[in-house]
Amino acid sequence: MTERVSRMDFRGSPGRDGAGVNLIRTFSHGEVREFDPFLMMDYFNSKDPNDYIKGFPMHPHRGIETITYLVRGEIDHEDSLGNKGIIADGSCQWMSAGSGILHQEMPQPSEHMLGVQVWLNLPKKRKMSRPAYNDLTGENIPLVEEDNLKVKVLAGDYKGTVGPLVEEDTEPFFYHFEALGEAAVTFETDPDYNIYFFVLEGEVEFDGRTYPMASGAVTEAGHQMSFGFNQPAHVIVLGGRPLREPIAWGGPIVMNTQPELNQAFADLRNGTFIKQSGTGI
To answer: pLDDT per residue over 215-234, tens digit each?
Structure first.
C-alpha cells in the first residue's frame, strides 16, 4: 500500500483575532488549494488568560462550518438561534453556519488553554442551507485504546470506530491521537482525500522526520498513514474530500462568487442576514 508522505510542511504564524485573542493561524487564505475542503485553522496554546480572555464577541458566519475542539480549557458559546453551551476539556462544538448565523465564543480563565478551531468549507449547493449546531462532550466521543495510545474519533471511521459528527459532502474525519509514551500507529486512508496533521503538544515522527509542537504537514495521496511517538504527545489528523470549487472569502463569510459575498454583507447591513432557524447536526 502506498504510504502517505509530506507534500507541504506548515507552522503558521502568531496573530490576533476577535477582541484581542493571541493565537497561531496555521493556515488560511493563501493555502486553500492545499487544504481543501478545510479553509483555516487557529491553534490556541496558552497558560496566560490575558492571551484569550477578551474572546470573540458576537460575529457573523455564512457558507462554512466551524469546528472548535479543546484538549484543555473552557469556552462559553452563544448564538443568534438561541443555542448556548460550554466547550470544556476534551469537548467539541461543530457548527454549520449555512445561510447565516451570529455567534460568540468567550474563553474562560483556565490553567491551560489548548485546542484548535477549524473552518470547513460548505459546497455551493449548501452555502444557503439551514444552520445547524452540535455540542459534543468528551464522554460522547468514541475512544480507541491501542498500545500506549488513545485515539478520540470525532468524525469519520477509524479502524471500525465511527465518530458521531457527519458532513455528507466532504465526509471529513477528525482524529485526536494522545500518545502516553513510545507508540506507533498505522491506519488506512482514502487516496482521494486531502489529509493533514498538526502537533498540539510534544512531537511526532512522520515521513522520516521529527515534527515538534506547533508544526504539521499536508500529505501526498496514499492508502495509509503512519506515525511514531517517542514521548507523550497530542496530535490531530484531519481529512476530507476536496470540493474544488471557486472561493470568494471576506472575513467570516466564505461564498463561491463575489456577488454572493457582496449580498451577504448587504444582508448584514440591512438586518436580513439571518434567513432561517437552525437544527442539530
So the answer is: 999 999 999 999 999 999 99
**CATH architecture classification, 8-280:** Sandwich (2.60)
- In 3D space, the residue among 214, 217, 218, 219 whose CA is nearest the CA of residue 234 turns out to be 214
The amino acid occupying position 23 is L
Nearest to 214 by CA among 76, 46, 6: 46
The domain spans of the chain are 8-280
CB 176 within 8 A of CB 236: yes
pLDDT in tens, 172-208: 999 999 999 999 999 999 999 999 999 999 999 999 9
- In this structure, the strands spanning 149-155 and 113-121 are unpaired
Residue 119 near residue 38, CB atoms below 8 Å: yes
For residue 145, the SS3 value is strand
* Helix or strand (DSSP H, E) at 226: strand 224-230
What is the spatial distance between Cα 42 and Cα 27, in angstroms, rounded to a whole number? 8
Could you tell me whether strands 161-162 and 194-201 are parallel, antiparallel, or unpaired per DSSP bridges? unpaired
Please choose, from the candidates 237, 198, 228, the residue with its C-alpha nearest in 3D space to the C-alpha of residue 215: 198
Q: With CA atoms as reference, report the closest residue to 67 among 118, 132, 122.
A: 118
Q: Are 68 and 105 in contact, with CB atoms under 8 Å apart? A: yes
Burial of 152 (0-12, 13-18, 19+ CB in 10 A): buried
Unique residue bearing C-alpha cell 472575513: 251
